[in-house]
Amino acid sequence: MAAALRKVITFASMLLPYGVHELRRRHRQRIELSEPILRALKANRELAGCHRGQRCFVLANGPSVKALDLTALEGETVISVSNGYLHADFMRFAPKYHVVPQITYGTMTEDQVARWFAEMHENLGEAELFLNETEAQIVAERKLFAGRKVRYVALRTNFDEIGDTSIIDVAKPIPRVDSVPVLALMIAMHMGFKSIVLLGADHDSWRSGYYTYAFDLKTQAGTDFSVTSDGRILSPNYDTFQSLARLWRQYRRLGMIASANGVRIINGGVGGELDEFERIPLNLLLSQDKVR
């Protein structure tokens, strides 16, 4: 019954505006992974459980981060995402990992991506980088990220088709994501973190109608055609809510996986609408450490 329902939901999604993009992705999915990508995925096996029992902080880029003292993360294992190297005091807390989701080349050209990656490389410190396999070619051809450890994931499957609560194995094709913190959570659980604290995963732009960050974009400024130059969202509410429904299903599934495997996901932010995880403010979490 559950499998049949998932098929109905998947078919129905094809009827939505998003379905066009979904069909394109499924076409790409039918293309077999190349040998270099298969080797890159296999290399991710060495990450399984490498941080078993530890805590990490997934630092997203929502504007609520401006209310946090990020220097308090010094000495912690931090996973930053996308343009997160633009956060104030980034080099003070020096993330160990940096995660970037699949890039939509309809909104960015390869030259723009190359410039963004160059800016990223210059500002990431020693962070180990995770990219989707669709970016492997441009990285290789343009000799980007010289001297940096770059790992690849294969965002090819569907969250709605997951039938169990096993930790998602990033050494294999994994579900596509609607927001990069979802990918960071999958990677963090694969690495064995027992406590994962989300910061800046606000997901509340639908309330204000504006998409903003905790910082000013540099190379990527003006490349998002879904918003105006001042950040006003152009998508109608119907499309926005469909996207949010997919995103919330992804968070809920990860919450179920975490619970089944003894992993605690905490929303340590001070704002936002994400209500799938327990919320404990960052300052309280860190003060509890001092008491211990």
Q: What do these coordinates show?
A:
- With 292 residues, this protein is an alpha/beta fold.
- The chain has 2 domains: 1-31, no CATH class; 37-291, sialyltransferase cstii, chain A (Alpha-Beta Complex), CATH 3.90.1480.
- It is built from 10 helices and 10 strands.
- It has an 8-stranded parallel beta sheet.
- Mean pLDDT is 90; it is low at 5-14 and 25-29.
- This is DUF115 domain-containing protein.
- It comes from Rhizobium croatiense.
Draw up the topology in text.
Layout: H1 2-13, H2 17-29, H3 35-43, E1 55-59, E2 77-81, H4 90-93, E3 97-99, H5 110-123, E4 128-132, H6 136-141, E5 150-153, E6 155-157, E7 174-175, H7 180-190, E8 195-199, H8 205-208, H9 237-260, E9 264-267, E10 278-279, H10 282-291
Parallel strand pairs: 1-2, 1-8, 2-3, 3-4, 4-5, 6-7, 8-9, 9-10
